[in-house]
Specification:
There is one protein chain. This protein has 459 residues and is α+β, with helices and mostly antiparallel strands. The protein folds into four domains: 2-91; 102-191, Beta-Lactamase (2-Layer Sandwich), CATH 3.30.450.20; 196-269, Helix Hairpins, CATH 1.10.287; 276-457, Heat Shock Protein 90, CATH 3.30.565. The chain is built from 13 helices and 14 strands. The chain has a six-stranded mixed β-sheet with strand order 11-12-10-9-7-14, with helices on one face. A five-stranded antiparallel β-sheet has the order 2-1-5-4-3, sandwiched between helices. Helix 9 (238-269) packs parallel to helix 13 (391-401) and helix 10 (280-295) runs parallel beside helix 11 (315-331). Bound molecules: adenosine-5'-diphosphate. Residues 324, 328-329, 332, 357, 359-362, 370, 375-378, 382, 387-393, 416 line the site of adenosine-5'-diphosphate (ADP).
């Protein structure tokens, strides 16, 4: 702006000097001529600028004086903006290319789950055409009630596994939604057809092998028992009897393993049913009786069981899970330790079955892995007590099939508490929530609580 003012001042000064030298009239005439020239030049410049604005990508027209002062910074700013935009576009394209290179499908959805963008993999998985489907709700595009139900949740901890037909092919997809920003969603899609096929082959193989082993094992055990009971067995050499007993024990362990494998296969392969009312009090007492028999009087048992608390589920499955927890409590609690079983309603409305022991406990690092098949925190002890390594894996499956939770708390050297928490939706009949009354000692016959006292089961 400074330059512009200086040139106007110089122009006026020139006009005044000419006026004093050549006379006022000539001076004014020259001054007016100068002004006219300026106006004409400005008009010409304005029309050039108007032309340039229409093709803003070109450099501005050559200009002098104030026009140069105005146009130069505009052009510099434009150039800078253009460079910035180029840089951003490059970053954006790089991100898009990376998203395209993802082995999984990715989609971004806006409010109302309207499709904004998807990579080629997602388009292939879901049969999308970005040009055609952009802006349409993914619910309308997929038209699957299972997906609609999944999408209606407020948070998505787990993916939805969806089997869809493509022509004459059936594909299994895993779809996982995740919210980001405000009203924005990212959906990751994965084709797990092959993984599922392999998993099914594995399950079938384990189930078939277990099934095929069952009969020969039963025959073997039967003959070993027969040999042990043979009339002349008493006269047989001591070593021979000892070996037969070892064989009987190992055959028994193998039978237990095969039984657990078959239970696990059945849990994995059968579809989850709604279930029916389960008298949990009776079921827990039956499991307690078996635990008392296993304990052979080595442990102190206590129980607190709410007789009115019933749930909806699969009685056989729940009995198997609770039986495993109680068997473990007996096996991992040294003699003279105590085992407490409670069945009660929590303040949240959920129902909890807890099995607490004062046994050897579990290191905290091992707790997350306990429900893995064949994981043993205490390998030596587990084998010595005839564990199959599948008890907690079975319990976890049962718990999952009942929308329940398996909680494990433990302190090494002090004991463990395993809790099965069934959600309020599973509770059918219940009295008021418990305020944790004192546990009652449980007897071997485990009748209705308060149980007839037998603080210590007899050997
Ligand atoms: P196992 O047949 O070996 O007992 P499980 O699946 O039932 O297999 O249990 C897995 C592992 O968890 C066990 O090997 C043991 O180390 C540990 N465990 C389970 N229950 C208890 C418990 N009540 N106290 C201590 N450790 C336990």
């Amino acid at each position: 702006m400074g330059k512009t003012l200086v040139s106007i001042a110089l122009w006026a000064l020139g006009g005044w000097l000419l006026g004093t030298w050549l006379g006022a009239a000539t001076g004014w005439a020259l001054f007016a001529l100068g002004l006219l020239t300026m106006i004409l030049v400005s008009g010409l410049q304005l029309s050039r600028i108007a032309r340039w604005v229409r093709q803003i990508d070109d450099p501005p027209p050559p200009s002098v004086g104030p026009w140069d002062e105005i146009l130069a910074p505009i052009y510099r700013k434009l150039k800078q903006n253009r460079l910035d935009l180029k840089e951003r576009t490059r970053h954006f394209n790089r991100a898009l290319l990376a998203a395209e290179a993802l082995p999984d499908g990715a989609l971004t959805l806006g409010p109302d789950q309207a499709l904004i963008w998807c990579n080629q993999t997602a388009a292939g998985h879901l049969g999308l055409d970005l040009e055609r489907d952009r802006g349409h709700s993914i619910l309308n595009i997929l038209r699957d009630p299972r997906f609609a139900q999944y999408a209606s949740q407020s948070q998505w901890d787990k993916p939805l596994i969806l089997s869809r037909g493509y022509g004459n092919q059936q594909r299994t997809l895993s779809l996982h939604l995740a919210p980001y920003g405000v009203g924005q969603y990212l959906m990751v899609t994965r084709d797990i057809t092959q993984i599922e096929r392999l998993e099914n082959t594995r399950k079938d193989f384990v189930a078939n092998v277990s099934h095929e082993m069952r009969t020969p094992l039963t025959v073997l055990s039967g003959f070993i028992e027969t040999l042990l009971d043979w009339p002349a067995a008493d006269q047989a050499p001591e070593a021979q009897r000892h070996y037969l007993e070892l064989m009987a024990e190992q055959a028994h362990n193998m039978q237990a393993l095969v039984d657990d494998l078959l239970t696990l296969s059945a849990l994995e392969s059968t579809t989850q049913e709604a279930g029916s009312p389960v008298d949990m009090a009776a079921l827990i007492r039956a499991a307690l009786e078996q635990a008392l028999a296993l304990s052979q009087g080595r442990h102190r048992f206590e129980s607190r069981i709410d007789d009115q608390l019933q749930v909806c589920g699969q009685a056989g499955e729940l009995a198997s899970a609770i039986g495993n927890l109680l068997t473990n409590a007996v096996r991992y609690t040294p003699a003279e330790g105590s085992i407490t079983v409670t069945w009660e309603r929590l303040a949240s409305g959920a129902a909890a079955c807890r099995v607490a022991d004062t046994g050897i406990g579990i290191a905290s690092a091992d707790i997350p892995r306990l429900t893995e098949r064949f994981f043993r925190a205490n390998r030596g002890r587990s084998r010595a007590t005839g564990g199959t390594g599948l008890g907690l894996a079975i319990a976890r499956h049962v718990v999952m099939r009942h929308d329940a939770e398996l909680q494990i708390e433990s302190t090494p050297g002090q004991g463990s508490t395993f809790s099965i928490i069934l959600p309020p939706a599973r509770v059918l009949a219940a009295g008021p929530p418990h305020d944790a009354p004192a546990a009652q000692p449980a007897g071997p016959a485990a009748g209705p609580d308060p149980a007839p006292a037998q603080a210590r089961a007899q050997a």
